[in-house]
Amino acid sequence: MQTSRSKPCSCPSFKLREVASMYFTMIAVFLVILVVALQGSVPRGSDFPYKVPLDPQGLLELSWNVSYPEQAVHFQLLVRDLQFGLLFGMSDRGEFENADLAVLWSDGRNSYFGDAWSDAKGQLHMDSQQDYQLLGARRAPEGLYLLFRRAFSTCDPKDYLIEDGTVHLIYGILEKPVHSLQAINISAIHRGLQRVQLLKPNITVPELPSDIKTMEITAPDVVIPSQETTYWCYMAELAEGFPKHHIIMYEPVITAGNEALVHHMEVFQCAAKFDSFPHYNGPCDSKMKPDRLNYCRHVLAAWAMGAQAFYYPEEAGLAFGGPGSSRYLRLEIHYHNPLVFKGRRDSSGIRLYYTATLRRYDAGIMELGLVYTPVMAIPPGEDAFLLTGYCTDKCTQLALPAAGIRIFASQLHTHLAGRKVVTVLSRDGRERQVVNADGHYSPHFQEIRMLKEVVAVFPGDELITTCTYNTEDRSRATVGGFGILEEMCVNYVHYYPQTQLELCKSAVDPGYLHRYFNLVNRFNDEEVCTCPQVSVPQQFFSVPWNTFNRDVLKSLYGFAPISMHCNKSSAVRFPGDWEKQPLPTITERLREPVPRCPPTPGPRPAAPVPLNLGELRRD
Amino acid sequence: MQTSRSKPCSCPSFKLREVASMYFTMIAVFLVILVVALQGSVPRGSDFPYKVPLDPQGLLELSWNVSYPEQAVHFQLLVRDLQFGLLFGMSDRGEFENADLAVLWSDGRNSYFGDAWSDAKGQLHMDSQQDYQLLGARRAPEGLYLLFRRAFSTCDPKDYLIEDGTVHLIYGILEKPVHSLQAINISAIHRGLQRVQLLKPNITVPELPSDIKTMEITAPDVVIPSQETTYWCYMAELAEGFPKHHIIMYEPVITAGNEALVHHMEVFQCAAKFDSFPHYNGPCDSKMKPDRLNYCRHVLAAWAMGAQAFYYPEEAGLAFGGPGSSRYLRLEIHYHNPLVFKGRRDSSGIRLYYTATLRRYDAGIMELGLVYTPVMAIPPGEDAFLLTGYCTDKCTQLALPAAGIRIFASQLHTHLAGRKVVTVLSRDGRERQVVNADGHYSPHFQEIRMLKEVVAVFPGDELITTCTYNTEDRSRATVGGFGILEEMCVNYVHYYPQTQLELCKSAVDPGYLHRYFNLVNRFNDEEVCTCPQVSVPQQFFSVPWNTFNRDVLKSLYGFAPISMHCNKSSAVRFPGDWEKQPLPTITERLREPVPRCPPTPGPRPAAPVPLNLGELRRD
């Protein structure tokens, strides 16, 4: 279980205070010799609401809290089997080069803690400005607890800037005595990465009604396959005649011991147009899986590692049950088992909290971004190619109520080449607000995220979603589509009150793309087959990707009119003329936020801090 | 006369020390109440070698020196007819909005000096960081002297960054009592701008030989026309049989009192192919001017306001006289007479210092940049459009001696839309050195500038010249060419030893440009005449300038092969294949220099400094 909030669940929680009181008699080894800068910066109440295992064995367990007034994160790292130290840090995408690291190292007699960084070759260096502030260290039977603090922004160019969205945490375990930081060969150590949303939004949890009921959609004692990646599918169903309810909260149910294996889970509702769905319990990619399960795609709940319980806003709930909705649910669990453990049994899943006392509004989900079509493509060998999908003023004017809608959560989605995603709200040609942004987006970490503040969208507003792709490892163009090697650019926004608008997405006008292929054909000396009788992907695959053809494709996407999908469901458009629509014009862009460098409370050490952890030996 | 160096000319110089000793008995009004931060930062020797009038009446006269060790400029501003203060400062292109200003103001009783800035509307604000440091103020019979200091870079975002190249100085005269800085209405005051090269290179002046001779090419008592702008042409000639000499230095000769009117002067040698040239003395744009004067274009000497004497390096001199060179010289003087003075007589010109003892090397001039051809064009309405001309490795390989050449001076040239010019030396695909750069280039201020350091160019090197243009005020495309509303992108580099290579320039391949017009024709819905039977300028004028056509033109210039002009003279190419040459590839760019913010010597005042100048009254 992930959450440590006491209400409404009462799962075993893991608070520093309790641990401290349990073991406070075992003083000898608990010595904290140096506690630096305690004035007000050790979290009061010592509450670390967020927790994630860093490694698949669960040797390192990170808990943290976020102080927005202080613009800082407090970390508590539990090291279960301390040998000669560890590395913990952050980097752009989880690489060990150009990383920002806190390092605890020991030569067997003396231990040190310091802020370090790795260069482009992975060589470690002590940081001239020490920004990981050690707040305490203490031994307990289960391991060593390290407490430290880090400001979101330090303005030290060697430090990682902690932003909203995904943060790639990295760790390394030092299994031999280390005589200096420089002596650590970062490529030879036991190491790994874990993705989390470090800056969780600071949201007040709404009170739950007294008639709340729970329902667990969990795997029926599955034996986790002994392979790195498994998507497990399990079909559940609601009771016959189950009336309309509102889901107002859900949380993960994780089988104890499997915290590091259960990567993410989703509960989908099946399509109402089919009366029944086959029962199935097995891998999602099995040949035995009935095809009809592909019609179970309406998300009811989604959880990913590091996430807590998901609460709907007080005024809204997600409708399920009742006429016009399917009784059938599909649970999908992504097991991540890189150490290929065998025979692990699992009954994890999601616990839905729902009520028959319907809230004022039904919540809805709307798809923003790009239509799944090959006309939107990325040339090969690009390090950061942008594609943009539009939800135009014309569509919101037609489809949204005068009082607008409120977006409260968002789930970003691309396939494997996606590196960043951002949706911006624009009104009267001026960018007003970021709806959701992830500058370190990973397709392997697609959470539903509560927004820091609810975004109001009114008729006439524009929602512009831009995805950044990296295709440096590809030799041919990546086209839009459903395939894992094709791409998507989507933001599923969760909002209320529900409207008929399910999909507000765009793609370049195919006629203009046709002109592009003609142009490529005529401009380049090579004879290339970009003739119209060939499919769009085939035409893209035959483009010779020189700088001109790349530049002109970018120019085309920034200029050509769009085909708008302003749809009630994925196939039914709102009435109107949606072809060859002009691109929204932006006259005023949002400014990039300038990182603030808050003064750190108390003096910062200029050098690594010695720690008395006793003599460390190899076990 | 501009120069204050005592050797070899002995013109009246204007040193602070002498002025001080002349008037040191007139103590009463000379009181300097507050001299701030005198420790070591007042220039020793009090020498201000550079001098320029700021306004056309000569009411404000600026002298300065440059300390490269301190990374600072010391200014001495003479205010001849002080009323209630003045503004002096710098801005990107001489505008009074977003300017960095030192202000001296008086309410009639009390006077203040402070560092201020103007916002985008021209409203003045006191700067929170005071970076114009007042070093002294003193009254003399000729006016008030203000001494102050400014670091090149202050890292205050409200301050101007003093860089190499042109600096637009601005001034304003306060003719009424001013009760606060905020009360100054900057648009209502007497104001203007002056362009100078503030950061003069720190070059050791070579010794001149004993057999040095001088020759003055000066206007014969011309009556300066009572109009704002006049280009005056005067033909001079060398004695029959004048043998080959080396010009090793030249300096301006300015008629006393006309310092603010003589804007720039050049001496050209005529083409040797004509035996004689008509005598002429009159405006260059007169219908009476003989056409043959257009064949007098080989620059022998050039001076512009604020420039000092020009010295050739010790090993080189500019050949003139002797067989194969014309005896005829053309002097061109640009008179800038915005106040339309009438009847001013002028005998200004240039004094050449030459020797019959030829130096080791003849100096030469080479043209880098773009060929004068309409195929290189700038769309209308661009705020910063870049065009690049190449001198390729293939050409330097063929034309330069194995020991290379040394570039010691450079004159940048564009027509009216030019805003920046830079030439970079690249070797093996890696940018190595900036040859000359002007980020605040003005077509109205085209000096020959000595380089801070001599640049060695070897066979196989590439010289890449990029010009930035602004066409926001134009409604149709600006094409390359000789006309004043057409454009050029040229760097005339002065170097030794002279080679046969006179011109190393490029332009886009015309066949690729033709494909561009075809593409525009086919891509855009409008029927535009970009048919080949029409001239290239006509084709450019008919392009509908949407973002796509602009972007694609940029992409074309960055991609298409070039036609190289690797010429012995403007019409004779070196042998070889110069058409459809590949663009040089650059694998490593020079880094933008990061401005250093040197600690200022002594404390800086946080607020404006009060000055006792006595009561100021309107005259």
From TrEMBL, chains A, B:
Keyword terms, alphabetized: Catecholamine biosynthesis, Copper, Cytoplasmic vesicle, Disulfide bond, Glycoprotein, Membrane, Metal-binding, Monooxygenase, Oxidoreductase, Signal-anchor, Transmembrane, Transmembrane helix, Vitamin C
Membrane topology: Single-pass type II membrane protein
GO CC field: chromaffin granule lumen; chromaffin granule membrane; extracellular space
Functional note: Catalyzes the hydroxylation of dopamine to noradrenaline (also known as norepinephrine), and is thus vital for regulation of these neurotransmitters.
Region (Disordered): 591-619
Catalyses which reaction(s): dopamine + 2 L-ascorbate + O2 = (R)-noradrenaline + 2 monodehydro-L-ascorbate radical + H2O
UniProt cross-references to PROSITE patterns, sorted A to Z: CU2_MONOOXYGENASE_1 (PS00084), DOMON (PS50836)
Main subcellular location: cytoplasm
GO biological process: dopamine catabolic process; norepinephrine biosynthetic process; octopamine biosynthetic process
Spans through the membrane: 21-42
Class of enzymatic activity (EC top level): oxidoreductase
One GO MF term: copper ion binding
Annotated EC: 1.14.17.1
The protein's annotated pathway: Catecholamine biosynthesis; (R)-noradrenaline biosynthesis; (R)-noradrenaline from dopamine: step 1/1
Cofactors named for this entry: Cu(2+)
InterPro entries: Cu2_ascorb_mOase-like_C (IPR014784), Cu2_ascorb_mOase_CS-1 (IPR020611), Cu2_ascorb_mOase_N (IPR000323), Cu2_ascorb_mOase_N_sf (IPR036939), Cu2_monoox_C (IPR024548), DBH-like (IPR000945), DOH_DOMON (IPR045266), DOMON_domain (IPR005018)
Biased composition range(s): Pro residues: 595-608
Protein name: Dopamine beta-hydroxylase
Summary of subunit composition and partner proteins: Homotetramer; composed of two disulfide-linked dimers.
Segments forming domain DOMON: 58-174
Subcellular localization, as worded in the UniProt entry: Cytoplasmic vesicle, Secretory vesicle, Chromaffin granule lumen; Cytoplasmic vesicle, Secretory vesicle, Chromaffin granule membrane
Family named by the database record: Belongs to the copper type II ascorbate-dependent monooxygenase family.
Organism the protein comes from: Accipiter nisus (Eurasian sparrowhawk)
Residues annotated as signal peptide: none
